[in-house]
Amino acid sequence: RPSIMSGKRGLIMGVANNRSIAWGIAKAAHAHGAELAFTYQGDALKKRVEPLAAELGAEVVGHCDVTDGATIDAVFAEVEKRWGKLDFLVHAIAFSDKDELTGRYVDTTPENFSKSLLISCYSLTAIAQRAEKLMKDGGSLLTLTYYGAEKWMPHYNVMGVAKAALEASVRYLAADLGPQGIRVNAISAGPIKTLAASGIGDFRYILKWNEYNSPLRRTVTIEEVGETAAYLLSDMSRGVTGEIHHVDAGYHVVGMKNPDAPDI
Ligand code: NAD
């Protein structure tokens, strides 16, 4: 049966384990017919990513640490060798020193500011530079952001600033790459318990708050983010670029606490 992603080949960057948002996206893309390749960050994650990739009959194309441009070049060279081109790419990568994901934003150090912005924001541009050359028939780039880019959130701090810059990058990259038929979009996901999220102070409180106050009165799953991603990565969304699409059970439309919500 033809499916919305049949014949599409994509690179998935940012799987750490089976709770990663990138894994939810990979599962959905595979279910819709896409062929996938994965990168991993370091040997510790290689052991986790390899069996997951095998579950989807996919290839692992190598180690990529986005702070080291040579490793980005190496994985793109490998993709070119295997496929000759690329149709879509998922960027699900972010980092901040855990010590600064608590307390006040105003106390952010210049070192962590630079590192967080480099890994969580600039890396999308670094990857887009390489992807542009391989997306010979156009393509779709997708990144992950969070509502903390738009509004203050407790503990999110420098990541909120990095995500705001990432969302602006989506718009600038969309304009630069649009003439070649390359689309650039982001999913703004509601809070999900992942490895990266466990670094954020009081994350359980944030999950509960979203569950009680979002219009759908629940949080979202990696599978739900994955299904929306499949739409953004496929030709179903061929008229969409530069978009920040919320998959957050509607939380971003809420202006006040739900008066019926229990105390947390
Ligand atoms: P995760 O821990 O599963 O994934 C984060 C990934 O970033 C890991 O695979 C890690 O290897 C990778 N990474 C970090 N530094 C890197 C580097 N220098 N080079 C290469 N890779 C690096 O957590 P996740 O929640 O699935 O995060 C994926 C994306 O989703 C992130 O951008 C995150 O900010 C975003 N997001 C998460 C939530 C949430 O609540 N979990 C909500 C909205 C957006």
Give the key terms.
single chain, 264 residues, alpha/beta, Rossmann fold, 7 helices, 7 strands, 41% helix, binds nicotinamide-adenine-dinucleotide
Describe the protein.
- It contains seven helices and seven strands.
- It is an alpha/beta fold.
- The chain has one domain: NAD(P)-binding Rossmann-like Domain (Rossmann fold).
- The chain has a seven-stranded parallel β-sheet with strand order 3-2-1-4-5-6-7, with helices on both faces.
- α3 packs parallel to α4.
- The N and C termini lie far apart (47 Å).
- The chain binds nicotinamide-adenine-dinucleotide.
- Nicotinamide-adenine-dinucleotide (NAD) binds next to α1 and β5.
- The site of nicotinamide-adenine-dinucleotide (NAD) has 27 residues, from α1 and β5.
CATH topology tier name: Rossmann fold
Shape: globular
Sheet-strand content, in percent, reads: 5-15%
Number of helices: 7
Count of beta strands: 7
Q: What's the SSE pattern? A: EHEHEHEHEHEHHE
Number of domains: 1
The structure class reads: alpha/beta
